[in-house]
Write a structure and sequence with these properties.
single chain, nucleotide-binding, Heat Shock Protein 90, 12 helices, 429 residues, elongated
């Protein structure tokens, strides 16, 4: 759903009331303010471009090679142009970021001066240099074409007043009388809104190019390092999780079990009318409650059924415990990484919990497959649909858990149902 006030020119152009809004004037201001910048850049490029085109033309048409003086001028001039371009592009890019606010209110990050050496070594610098050549080469040509069309349209509008002069008015053909000029004038007036949209489209195109070039490029190396860092963190988390699980299962849980048994035996030896009977009974009940809590904690870290039965068996156990009929289809081959098994188990557990609490479904289905080697988990139901991650149904946390395993979660839940949760988990070891 679009916002009430467009944030940029391309969005405003799609609105019906564009012609009577302030956006045409903003587009015109953007185009007019471009003229001095593009003009200066075009002159600078013509200093090298015009002699180069003349030399190429002479070589192609007349077979005359350029003189040594001209080649020396072109070589030295090109080197100077490339040497100055990163510095000039920084100034132009700063101005362009400021001017872009005329037609685009979306924030564009500033680019501070990184230092002279870093300026020449940065990939973003040469993007700005490319924009410099585009602004001084293509933009003036587009402006001249549009200006000639506007002048032709103005000539057609004024042709009825000029047709009575001694010299005929020439548009496509000579016009000698006012009657002949009136149809041209009517067509030209009808074309005025078209020219307003043409100005807007040109300004929107120029702004889109400026935003694409001047925005900070994605640092691929930094993204790879972030991905590797996340993998290391997930691996460290899994190792720590296994250590905690092992300590609880092999250390605290047996000792607590022993304590519970000793308290139970002590209760049998103490008479019921003894003053110590009631406190001993309370301690025994608390120990049993603590045992249950500890088992739940260990189960929450890594379910024992997952270790004993594997992913398919653990999921079938979840299906048997569900409050509605759940069908499980498992087509798994080969071993799965531990983090993938754990993530998939909790995905199914949370998804079936959501079905029971929110969907109003009468049945559900779980599919576990490995097309292409990666694990795909699909949980579907015949409920009312309309699942929304923003309403706190656990989907956001589920997506975060999946993302930590370098996977992705897809949700299809139209109003009225059905709902499908699909999770794709890479199985790289």
């Amino acid at each position: 759903m679009t916002s009430e006030h467009p944030r940029h020119l391309a969005e405003a152009l799609r609105r019906r009331g564009w012609l009577i809004s302030a956006w045409p004037w903003r587009a015109l201001a953007y185009l007019v303010s471009t003229v001095p910048i593009a003009g200066v850049l075009a002159i600078g490029l013509l200093v090298i471009g015009a002699p180069l085109l003349a030399a190429v033309n002479a070589l192609l048409l007349h077979g005359r090679p350029p003189s040594i003086a001209l080649m020396l001028f072109l070589g030295v001039g090109s080197l100077i142009l490339l040497a100055l371009a990163p510095i000039v592009s920084f100034l132009v890019a700063t101005i362009e970021r400021w001017r872009l606010r005329l037609v685009d209110s979306r924030p564009l990050p500033a680019s501070p001066w990184p230092g002279l050496v870093a300026r020449y070594r940065s990939a973003a610098t040469w993007r700005e240099v490319a924009y410099l050549f585009w602004l001084g080469g293509f933009v003036p040509v587009a402006y001249w074409v549009l200006l000639l069309l506007v002048l032709l349209d103005l000539g057609m509008i004024t042709s009825p007043w000029l047709a009575g002069d001694a010299e005929p008015v020439v548009i496509w053909q000579p016009i000698e009388t006012t009657g002949e000029a009136i149809p041209y004038a009517i067509v030209a007036v009808l074309l005025l809104p078209v020219f307003c949209y043409a100005f807007g489209l040109l300004a929107a195109l120029q702004a889109a190019v400026a935003r694409w070039v001047l925005a900070r490029p994605v640092d691929a190396a930094a993204l790879r390092e972030v991905a590797r860092s996340r993998t290391r963190l997930v691996g460290a988390y899994e190792a720590e999780r296994r250590r905690i699980e092992r300590d609880l299962h092999d250390g605290a849980q047996p000792r607590l079990t022993s304590l519970t048994l000793q308290l139970g035996l002590a209760r049998l030896d103490v008479p019921e009318d003894s003053p110590a009977a009631r406190p001993l009974a309370v301690a025994h009940d608390q120990a049993r409650g603590l045992m249950v809590m500890l088992r739940q904690l260990v189960h929450g870290i890594r379910p024992q059924s997952l270790t004993d039965l594997g992913l398919a068996g653990a999921v079938r156990e979840l299906a048997d415990a569900a409050t509605i009929p759940v069908t499980v289809h498992a087509d798994l081959h080969g071993e799965l990484p531990e983090i993938v098994e754990t993530t998939a188990y909790f995905v199914v557990s949370e998804a079936l919990g959501n079905v029971a609490r929110h969907a109003g479904a009468t049945r559900a289905e779980v599919r576990l497959t490995r097309p292409g080697g990666d694990l795909v988990v699909e949980v579907s139901d015949n409920g009312s649909g309309g699942a929304d991650p923003t309403r706190g149904t656990g989907l956001t946390g589920l997506a975060d858990r999946v993302a930590a395993a370098d996977g992705r979660l897809l949700l299809a839940s139209p109003p009225g149902g059905p709902t499908l949760v699909r999770v794709e988990l890479p199985c790289r070891r």
